[in-house]
Amino acid sequence: MRIVVAYQWACDPQEALVSSDGKIDFSRAKPTISDYDAVAIEMGCHLAEATGAELIGISAGGEAVATAIATKAALARGLHEVFVVSDPGLDSAGTLATAVTLKAAIDNLGDVGLLLTGDSSLDSGSKTLVAVLAGLLGWPCVTDVMKVTMDGDSLTIERTIPEGIQGLHLHGPVLVGVTSDAVKAKVPGMKDVLSAGKKPARVVSLLDLGVRLPGEGEILSVEKMAGPSRQQIRINTEDPAQAAAELVSALRAAGALDA
Amino acid sequence: MFGLTDEQELIRSSVREFSEAEVAPLAAEIDRDHRPPLETIPKLAELGLLGILIPEQYGGTEMDSVSYCVVIEELSRCCATTGVMVEAHSSLCTWPIVHFGTEEHKQRYLPDLASGVKMGAFGLTEPGAGSDAGALATTARRDGDEFVLNGQKVFITGGGYSEVFIVFARSTEAPGTKGISAFIVDRDTPGFTIGEGERKLGIRGSSTPPLMFSDVRIPATNLLGREGQGFEIAMATLDGGRTGIAAQAVGIAQGAFEAAIDYAQQRVQFGKPLAALQAIQWMIADMATSIDAGRLLVYQAADLEDRGIPHGIAAAQAKLFCGEMASAVAGKAIQIHGGNGYTEAYPVERAYRDAKITEIYEGTSEIQRLVIGRSFLR
User: Fold this and answer.
1) Which residues of chain A lie closer than 8 angstroms to B11, CB-CB?
2) For B251-262, how does the pLDDT look when each residue is reduced to its tens digit (9 = 90+)?
3) Every domain of chain B and the residues it spans
4) C-alpha to C-alpha distance for A169 and A157, rounded to whole angstroms
5) What is the third-level CATH fold of B122-228?
6) Which residue in A9, A21, A42, A193 has the most chain B C-beta atoms within 10 A of its own C-beta, making it the best mutation to test that interface?
7) ipTM given for this complex
């Protein structure tokens, strides 16, 4: 049985520059494995070690996702091999196109008992992929997952819900969305990096998989939502009590607090 | 066009992630307290950073020199002390054992040095023999199957916590540098004592105590290389060490540069961020250009070493340029911070103090100029 981790290769928002007018510049941000998916890979490593299962990474994207550095970065995190769907048509793929492509990759691999992924995306922050992909696969889907244990195709899962921690038992195949703090993603060690290039990396196109991307509509424009204007409240005192009093007074004057 | 390989880029990415999570949070504290970050050693070992220059068969990661420089640069970007801990251990202790040690030396010492069970140091400098290393006075008298060491070393990086020392001593009557031999000395050898660490201007977390040898008996088998080969071993070791220190200087400069950019973009004066002022933009441009130039000199020296081409002059050029560059860049970073940069509240003050040593240790800038100048005037 195989454990598969879907991961995203995208620009690291921590390297983006935010200018004083609020514009975000990604031009100098290097691509990386999504922090969210790195946690899913780490969880996959623990499960593969405990069960002896094969651990395969899958990813979908434009040319960048198939570069040697992208596949080695994923393999250095402990995956046994990667299966990458690379196509210019996936450069700006939305959730549906990505999910359709990943479903085709899963179908191609076969014998998948558990599909893990981070529960959010690095670029858009969308949390919809897990549900859409599970729907296409016809698999149960569990999100906000903190812990998974496996015994054959039997899975015990803990996830966070508003009331606390919910324990679940179900049989695979299952798609699991892992929370960003489920486990600590290990920094790849030097031996992991140096051995990554020796592991298998398969790259296929949409044509190879026989995938036709669905229409996702056309983005006409993106406009920044204007927030409330700054009130320019300035407090010039070293005395904390006086500062608090001035702040309360200013907030009352602005109508933010009851008089 | 020069570029790092995929593996070298990934090594940079890993070490940066590690440094920001595990090294940077301690940097100000260990500087303030003048204490080595010993708690980081097992973490460095787990990542494979203590066996960089050690072959795989002895537990190391056996990385190329360019990768090694990338590691030292990234560690030093967050903490110059941690950078030099790894640099001295690797370049100055593990490297000479790998290149001049017997099979028995390698099997006995390298696995523990690669795994961080033991750290290593290099004892060359003496009170009367700094830049003039050939003037060292420590002696090693042959007595049957042993050598007996007497003398003193100073400013020994990592001396406070290291277990394995490469020690240089005069073992024959041959004049000048020809009488010098290299030895491996274990910390627990009777008669070998380690003094109190110096309190320094910068890299304050780095332990640099004196070593005292009083009738220290070591097996003759602990001779590293041939008798009388010590000076050659020291100079060959320092060629690699100089590239490592140049990489440390690039890292210190890069850290100060990034801090200056952050500050220039956030600090508002005259109604706009400092970064909008041309005077600041020019300083940023000069800093960026000199850091890139230094980095390329480092990679050139390391690449020559990787290809087995003599790299002593390139290493000297890298160390000379990068040491002085790091001090200049850190100085400009303080200037951009204004009064704030002169306080301990901002990291550029520490970078300025840390940078200075890269003009001094493992060969002063003056010695580098001597080496470079003579090479063109032979």
Assistant:
1) 190, 193
2) 999 999 999 999
3) 6-119, 122-228, 231-377
4) 6
5) Butyryl-CoA Dehydrogenase, subunit A; domain 2 (2.40.110)
6) A193
7) 0.86
